[in-house]
Task: inverse folding
């Protein structure tokens, strides 16, 4: 880090008794921006209470700025290609878990993909139904992934991919995103379907189209089941509802769901941040 010595010197001045000096120090650290985050975070718990409090306030201002840069980088580096789903989900997860380890998530995904691949390899011939059933068996029977116990969870953590992997529960969209990440690694043609009030997966096989509901413990569905769901929830049966979402659409929908959750929790600052991330993804890609 180019500004290491500068940040270290400024950090020492945060404990000054002169409030004007403290204010100037804070301004300088904010000007340095997200580059200062790693050092400031590492030093947070080593500071006396007054400095720790001031430093915590600065971190609250710097972390959203860091995420703005991360979301812009996602879009800029796409180069016209589909948005990278895993990197995007990790960036979203850092909204709730700033110190998230991408390596830990990668290892968890690799392990799950390997287990599914081993299960698929046991079969000499695989029809479409068997492929979907085996994926469901590993994730939802063996590992017991499902939606949260309450029918309508207000916990935003259920939307973050690291939480889903650790707790084996999450929102419908987060669970679908997990399966999609694993399917992409295994070259399985799963797509995420954004029904008006629910999210499921669609497997486009050689002979069949099969739907999978991760939120309800990997229940297998037919197109007729999805159409019946639409009618029961007051929507017309429209083909567009059963089209697969692009990676960009998945991330935008995830951000929208988080905005709604934090609004209900009364966290206006987080809502403001999320809306700005939504604009970046929507406009820059």
Result:
């Amino acid at each position: 880090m180019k500004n290491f010595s500068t940040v270290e010197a400024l950090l020492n001045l945060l404990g000054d008794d002169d409030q004007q000096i403290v204010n100037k120090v804070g301004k300088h650290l904010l000007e340095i921006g997200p580059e200062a985050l790693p050092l400031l975070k590492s030093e947070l718990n080593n500071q006396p209470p007054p400095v720790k409090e001031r430093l915590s306030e600065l971190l609250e201002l710097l972390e959203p700025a860091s995420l703005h840069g991360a979301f812009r980088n996602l879009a800029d580096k796409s180069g016209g290609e589909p948005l990278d789903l895993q990197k995007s989900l990790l960036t979203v997860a850092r909204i709730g878990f700033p110190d998230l380890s991408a390596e830990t998530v990668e290892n968890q995904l690799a392990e799950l993909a390997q287990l599914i691949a081993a299960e698929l390899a046991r079969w000499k011939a695989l029809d479409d139904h068997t492929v979907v059933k085996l994926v469901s068996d590993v994730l939802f029977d063996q590992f017991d992934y499902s939606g949260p116990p309450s029918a309508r969870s207000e916990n935003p953590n259920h939307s973050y991919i690291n939480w889903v992997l650790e707790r084996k529960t999450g929102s419908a969209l987060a669970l679908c995103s997990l399966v999609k990440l694993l399917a992409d690694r295994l070259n399985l043609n799963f797509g995420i379907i954004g029904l008006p009030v629910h999210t499921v997966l669609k497997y486009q096989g050689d002979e069949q189209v099969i739907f999978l509901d991760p939120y309800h413990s990997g229940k297998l569905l037919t197109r007729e089941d999805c159409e019946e769901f639409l009618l029961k929830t007051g929507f017309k049966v429209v083909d567009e509802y059963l089209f697969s979402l692009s990676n960009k659409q998945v991330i935008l929908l995830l951000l929208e769901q988080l905005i709604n959750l934090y609004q209900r929790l009364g966290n206006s600052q987080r809502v403001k941040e999320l809306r700005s991330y939504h604009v970046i993804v929507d406009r820059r890609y």
Notes: The chain is about 60% helix and 5% strand. Residues 26 and 57 are 9 Å apart (CA to CA). The longest strand covers residues 198-204. Residues 85-284 form one domain.
